[in-house]
Specification:
By secondary structure, this protein is α/β, with parallel strands linked by helices. It is 50% helix and 14% strand. The chain contains eleven helices and five strands.
Length: 228
């Protein structure tokens, strides 16, 4: 019986797909024919794997308009060749104009990094965020509520990942050759569906540290009453 229920669920996904494809074609005649011939996104989105934060949908973009990489807690690590390969292809082949690192408030990965539980492989993946939490401990714990502390670290994590993107040889080389490329840090509120700009946009190497240091010193923590 359980297998039958799962088969019915999967069949429903195919039905949803056909309905979606039909609706897209009705709204945009010839869309899929054009899409099959090329992709020319202006944006690379580096986001969290959380199922509640779908990149295209929350910014109202169609397939082909956003190149996407997602992982737990939207991290950019110099040893993550998956993420770096995506970044290189987006910058050098697709010539995207914008790299957006987007985190979200209440991130489960950020919460987990603050706890002293053994999580197996996740402990290794979240180690950098744990270190960020320790580095900015006083700033974070100055907030009165645990949820606000988590959200503050969510913002700090986005800012740090913007720094990591900017430090890659991929982005550094792009700026040196005069490529028009900006890196942005955004954060998303699952409870209201709204995006917030963390004011860490960087478009040239010489302003990276100045821009990010200013953002860390004056975090844009959006309190719960403002996010309703």
């Amino acid at each position: 019986m359980a297998d039958s229920d799962e088969d019915h669920f999967l069949d429903g996904l195919f039905e949803n797909n056909r309905t979606w494809a039909k609706q897209v074609e009705q709204n945009h005649p010839g869309f899929f024919d054009k899409l099959a011939k090329q992709q020319a996104p202006r944006v690379l989105w580096i986001g969290c794997s959380d199922s509640r934060v779908p990149a295209n949908e929350i910014i109202g973009m169609l397939p082909g308009e956003v190149f996407v990489h997602r992982n737990v807690a939207n991290q950019v690590m110099m040893v993550d060749f998956n993420c770096l390969a995506v970044l290189q292809y987006a910058v050098e082949a697709l010539r995207v104009r914008h790299v957006i690192v987007c985190g979200h408030y209440g991130c489960g990965g950020v919460k987990a990094s603050l706890k002293n539980h053994e999580l197996g492989l996740l402990d290794n993946w979240l180690h950098g965020i744990n270190m960020l939490g320790r580095r900015h401990h006083d700033q974070i714990t100055a907030l009165p509520h645990k949820a606000e502390q988590v959200d503050a670290l969510c913002e700090i994590n986005v800012i740090e990942q913007v720094r990591n993107v900017c430090r890659t040889s991929i982005v550094q080389h792009a700026w040196r050759r005069g490529q028009d490329l900006s890196v942005h840090g955004w954060i998303y509120g699952i409870q209201d569906g709204l995006l917030h700009d963390l004011d860490v946009t960087v478009s040239e190497a010489k302003v990276v540290e100045e821009t990010l240091a200013a953002a860390i010193a004056a975090p844009r923590l959006v309190h719960k009453d403002e996010r309703r």
